[in-house]
Design brief:
Layout: H1 2-10, H2 15-43, H3 50-71, H4 77-94, H5 98-130, H6 135-156, H7 161-171, H8 180-190, H9 200-203
Helix pairs in contact: 1-2, 2-3, 2-5, 2-6, 3-4, 3-5, 4-5, 5-6, 6-7, 7-8
């Protein structure tokens, strides 16, 4: 993705959008490092390289957590949860406390899933607002939504393969053909638990 984005940018095609692809792809690499290191720790607390890698990638995750927490009107709430869970995980890993590590790991994994889902919704909101007004911005938002969704599917899998395929298909379309309402509905059905504490109107979905 990064290489393709750079080549497209050099060719002068949707330069701003392709710059965002490169940036979000790098961010995705940190997300993958964090989540995979977390899984390795949960599977084997003795895995020596997992904790340093996880802690190295953590600031990128923390930044994303903070942005989404503020966007949904939670202030620093999600960030505080992330910080506390990360510290519990660090202490548990260093102390080889498997029970505490498992609990902190589940909390971090759930929070990362929530943030990725909310990030797709956030980019859909930007796409809806820019579509028909700013083609470059709309293209950028589509690509960001696509990369966040790809990260979500890569690391956390699909609870509904048909719905996930439909979302991916929609986000691959030209911006003026994307059914944003359908994407929102599919995501909200698949990840009800993750968005339960968020005002539905902020996400552009009907109140449940």
């Amino acid at each position: 993705l990064v290489r393709d984005a750079r080549e497209e940018g050099r060719a002068g095609r949707e330069i701003h959008a392709h710059a965002q692809i490169a940036e979000k792809s790098i961010q995705r690499a940190f997300i993958l490092t964090f989540t995979r290191s977390l899984k390795q720790l949960q599977e084997d607390v003795e895995h020596g390289k997992s904790l340093p890698r996880l802690l190295e990638a953590a600031p990128v995750l923390r930044s994303a957590v903070g942005r989404r927490s503020r966007w949904v009107g939670k202030g620093a709430e999600y960030t505080d949860v992330f910080d506390a869970a990360l510290e519990r995980l660090r202490q548990a890993a260093e102390g080889k406390n498997r029970e505490s590590l498992a609990e902190a790991g589940v909390q971090l994994s759930s929070l990362v899933t929530k943030v990725l889902v909310l990030s797709v919704f956030y980019e859909l909101d930007g796409l809806e607002k820019s579509r028909g007004e700013d083609a470059d911005k709309a293209g950028e938002k589509r690509e960001e939504a696509r990369i966040y969704h790809l990260s979500l599917m890569t690391e956390h899998g699909s609870r509904d393969e048909e719905a996930a395929a439909s979302v991916a298909g929609q986000l691959a379309l030209p911006v003026d053909q994307i059914d944003i309402g359908l994407v929102r509905e599919l995501l909200s059905n698949e990840f009800q638990g993750e968005i339960a504490d968020v005002d539905p109107s902020l996400l552009g979905i009907a109140r449940r």
